[in-house]
Automatic annotation (TrEMBL):
One Pfam family recorded for the sequence: Abhydrolase_1
Natural source organism: Prunus dulcis
Keywords recorded for this protein, A-Z: Hydrolase
Protein's name in the database: PREDICTED: probable
Domain AB hydrolase-1: 24-256
Length: 284
C-alpha cells in the first residue's frame, strides 16, 4: 500500500489535538532523541493546535533501519528536504515549527527553501556551529569534539550515559535516564556518523538568509549551546528574531522545565497555558 511507503508513516508521524484547529505546530527532536521528548508539552499544545510529532530517520524508534543513509545525511540539507517533504505530504502550510538542537538549524534551512511552509520558527538550544573560533564562541573546542567522537567509537553505551548527564539537568534524574534510553536505542554506527555531521557542522552562513520570524530559546546554562550562541544567531538572522532565556540548567527544557518552556511558548504564540494537567489528547 502507498500509505506504508510514505515518509510520514516511515518516521512514525502522529497528528494530535483538535482537527478543527486551523494552525499546526510541528515539533522536531534533536540528536539521540525521539518524539517522546515532547510528551510533557504536547497535551497543552494540543488544546490549541494540531500538533505534529515524528522521529528523524536516525532515531532508534524508527523501525526501518535502512532509512538512515550516512552519506545522504552527512549534511543538514537532507534533513531539511525530509522536513519539506513531510509538510508537503501532510498538506501543511504556514506552520509553527519548534526545532530542538540540530533541528533548529534544519528548520532554518527548510524555511529558506520553502518559506510558505513556515509562519514562525521556534529554536530551542539551536546552534549553527559548536566549535569555537577566534571570533565566535560555540561552546566547545575542537579537542572536545575529537574526544566525543573517540568516546562514541570506543564505547557508545558508556558515552551515552556520560553525555546525558552533561546535557540534561542532573537535578532531574528521571529526565537524564529518559535521554540515556533514547540515546542507547540509536545504533552506535548511526550515532557516530550523525555526531560527525552535527558537531563538525558550520551553518553560520545560513542565518542571514532566514527571513521567517524566529524565537530563540535557551536555558541559562547549556553546555551544548551557550547563550553566546543564541545572541549571535539573533544578530545574524535576517528576519525578526528574539531571544528568550529560561532560568534552568541543561539542553532539554522540554524535559526538565516544561512549565517554564510553556510560559515562553505562550508568550510567543499569544496564549496562556493552564498549568493544570490537561486531559490526555488522542491521535486523530
Amino acid at each position: 500500500m502507498v500509505l506504508e511507503k510514505s515518509l510520514s508513516s516511515a518516521i512514525n508521524t502522529k497528528i494530535m489535538g483538535s482537527s478543527g484547529s486551523e494552525e499546526t505546530i510541528v515539533l522536531a527532536h534533536g540528536y539521540g532523541g525521539d518524539q517522546s521528548v515532547w510528551d510533557k508539552i504536547v497535551p497543552y499544545l494540543a488544546e490549541h493546535y494540531r500538533v505534529v510529532v515524528f522521529d528523524w530517520p536516525f532515531s532508534g524508534a524508527v523501525n526501518n533501519k535502512d532509512l538512515f543513509d550516512p552519506s545522504k545525511y552527512s549534511s543538514y540539507d537532507a534533513f531539511a528536504n525530509d522536513l519539506i517533504a513531510l509538510l508537503d505530504e501532510l498538506n501543511l502550510k504556514s506552520t509553527v515549527f519548534v526545532g530542538h538542537s540540530m533541528s533548529g538549524m534544519i528548520g532554518c534551512i527548510a524555511s529558506i527553501n520553502r518559506p510558505d511552509l513556515f509562519k514562525t520558527l521556534i529554536l530551542i538550544g539551536a546552534s549553527p556551529r559548536y566549535i569555537n573560533t577566534e571570533d565566535y564562541e560555540g561552546g566547545l573546542e575542537m579537542s572536545d569534539i575529537t574526544q566525543i567522537i573517540s568516546a562514541i567509537e570506543s564505547n557508545y553505551h558508556n558515552w551515552a550515559a556520560y553525555f546525558a548527564s552533561l546535557a540534561v539537568d542532573a537535578n532531574d534524574p528521571l529526565s537524564v535516564d529518559k535521554f540515556v534510553k533514547c540515546l542507547r536505542r540509536m545504533r552506535p554506527e548511526v550515532a557516530l556518523a550523525l555526531a560527525k555531521t552535527v558537531f563538525y557542522s558550520d551553518q553560520r552562513d545560513v542565518l542571514d538568509q532566514v527571513s521567517t520570524p524566529c524565537t530563540i530559546i535557551n536555558t541559562s546554562s547549556d553546555i551544548v549551546a551557550p547563550n553566546s550562541v543564541a545572541f549571535y544567531m539573533q544578530k545574524k538572522i535576517k528576519g525578526k528574531s528574539t531571544v528568550e532565556i529560561i532560568n534552568t540548567n541543561g539542553h532539554f527544557p522540554q524535559l526538565t522545565a516544561h512549565l517554564e518552556l510553556l510560559d515562553v511558548l505562550g508568550k510567543v504564540l499569544g496564549l496562556k497555558f493552564d498549568h493544570q494537567d490537561p486531559d490526555i489528547v488522542g491521535v486523530n
